[in-house]
Amino acid sequence: MPVEQLTVSDAIRHANHDYLNHLQLIHINLELGQIDAAKQLIEQYTVNVRMFSQLHYLKSPIVQQWLQTCTWRYPAFTLHLTAHVDEALQQGYEEQLVEYLEKTVLHYSEQSTATDELELTVSVTVTQQIKQLFVCVEGFQHIEPLALHNTENIHVDIDEATNECLSYCLAWQ
C-alpha cells in the first residue's frame, strides 16, 4: 500500500530531525577526537546536499519531492543519489518515473524483513544526449524480482533481476 504524501510540516519536521542527527554525529566525533571522521561526515553531507540541489534543474517537483522524501516515507531504505542534470525534464515523464520508483520501493519494502538493510541507489542523468534514471535495490534476500515493462514513452532495460538484487535503467527521448 502506498505511503501517504507528506505535508509541508511533516517534511520540515523530518528535515530538521535529520539535520540535528547529522550535527550530533559530527559533534560526537569531534568530542572523541575523531577529526578525520567528522570531516568525512561533513564531506558526505555536503555531497548529498549537492546531489539533491541538482534535482532542482529537472524542474519537476514531483520527481524531486519523491526522491527527497523517499527515506522518510520508507525508513527501511537508505538512499544513495547521484544526479547530473543540465536540462529540465520534459512534461509527461515525471509521473511515469515516479510510478516506477514507487512500485519498486513498495515491492521490496512490503516483502522485506526487519533484518534486511535495503539500499536504494538512484542515478538521474538528464542532458541533451542522455535521459535516464538508473535504479538499484539491494540488501534483501529471497524476494522475487519486480517485473517491469516498457511504456509508450519509457524504455526499461533490466540490468540484474535476482532474489537478492534488482537494477534497471529507464530511458526516454
UniProtKB/TrEMBL annotation:
It comes from the Bacteria. Keywords: Kinase, Phosphoprotein, Transferase. The keyword Ribonucleoprotein does not apply. InterPro entries: Sig_transdc_His_kin_SpoOB, SPOB_a. GO terms for molecular function: phosphorelay sensor kinase activity. Pfam families: SPOB_a. Transmembrane segments: none annotated. Residues 7-54 form the SpoOB alpha-helical domain. The keyword Transferase applies. This is SpoOB alpha-helical domain-containing protein. It comes from Caryophanon latum.
